[in-house]
């Protein structure tokens, strides 16, 4: 598969996974849908890159996602509807963070290659993603400006940590 087609395939799978996780609570299969799309992403990673190469990023995203989103929930900046959660982060969001970690390198390497691109790109992308989630009525940014800033800070920290891991675990030549 050509690099361009591989990128488009990864992007399409990531978007399916994003919508599958985000819209899980509004679907007839609220608990099954995040698992199914996570399996789709896992199969793609296993077939193309292997799990070992993405493990540091996946674990980092899992930890950052749970801690970051749970912190925003406990600070009253973010809220989610009723759904099983881990310390306040709903499991569909945890699955979304896992998908992000699994697909980070094929889709977001350009951001990871430069510090300021990681900070700005991840901050802006995080705010846009959470704002989109609010428009889809699956989460609420409780305190308008402060909530957006909280999400931006969470994702700036994520960008810096993921850049660090990107440098520590270079792509194979």
Furnish the topology, listing elements before pairings.
Elements: H1 3-22, H2 32-48, H3 51-74, E1 78-80, E2 85-86, E3 89-90, H4 91-112, H5 115-135, E4 139-141, H6 144-168
Antiparallel strand pairs: 1-4, 2-3
Describe this structure in words.
- The protein is mainly alpha-helical.
- It has one domain (3-168).
- It is 75% helix and 6% strand.
- The protein has 6 helices and 4 strands.
- The protein has helices at 3-22, 32-48, 51-74, 91-112, 115-135, 144-168; strands at 78-80, 85-86, 89-90, 139-141.
- A two-stranded antiparallel sheet has the order 1-4. Strands 2-3 form a two-stranded antiparallel sheet.
- Strand 2 and strand 3 form a beta hairpin.
- Helix 2 (32-48) runs parallel beside helix 4, helix 3 packs antiparallel against helix 6 and helix 4 (91-112) packs across helix 6 (144-168).
- The longest helix is centred in the last third of the chain and has 25 residues, at 144-168.
- The protein is globular.
- The mean pLDDT is 95.
Key features?
75% helix, 6 helices, single chain, 173 residues, two-stranded antiparallel sheet, two-stranded antiparallel ribbon, mainly alpha
Number of strands: 4
Helix content: over 70%
Secondary-structure element string: HHHEEEHHEH
The total of helices stands at 6
* Oligomer designation: single chain
- Gyration radius, rounded: 15 Å
* C-alpha end-to-end distance: 18 Å
Would you kindly provide a brief summary of this structure?
By secondary structure, the protein is mostly helical.
């Amino acid at each position: 598969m050509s690099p361009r087609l591989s990128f488009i395939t990864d992007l399409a799978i990531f978007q399916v996974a994003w919508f599958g996780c985000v819209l899980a609570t509004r679907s007839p299969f609220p608990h099954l849908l995040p698992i199914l799309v996570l399996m789709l992403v896992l199969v793609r990673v296993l077939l193309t890159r292997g799990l070992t190469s993405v493990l540091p990023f996946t674990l980092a995203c899992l930890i950052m996602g749970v801690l970051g989103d749970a912190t925003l929930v406990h600070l009253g900046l973010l809220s989610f509807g009723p759904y099983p959660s881990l310390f306040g982060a709903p499991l569909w969001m945890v699955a979304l963070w896992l998908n992000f970690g699994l697909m980070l390198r094929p889709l977001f390497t350009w951001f990871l290659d430069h510090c300021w691109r990681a900070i700005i790109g991840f901050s802006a992308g995080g705010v846009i993603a959470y704002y989109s989630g609010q428009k889809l009525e699956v989460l609420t940014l409780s305190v308008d400006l402060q909530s957006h800033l909280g999400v931006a800070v969470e994702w700036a920290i994520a960008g810096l940590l993921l850049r660090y891991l990107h440098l520590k675990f270079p792509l194979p030549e």
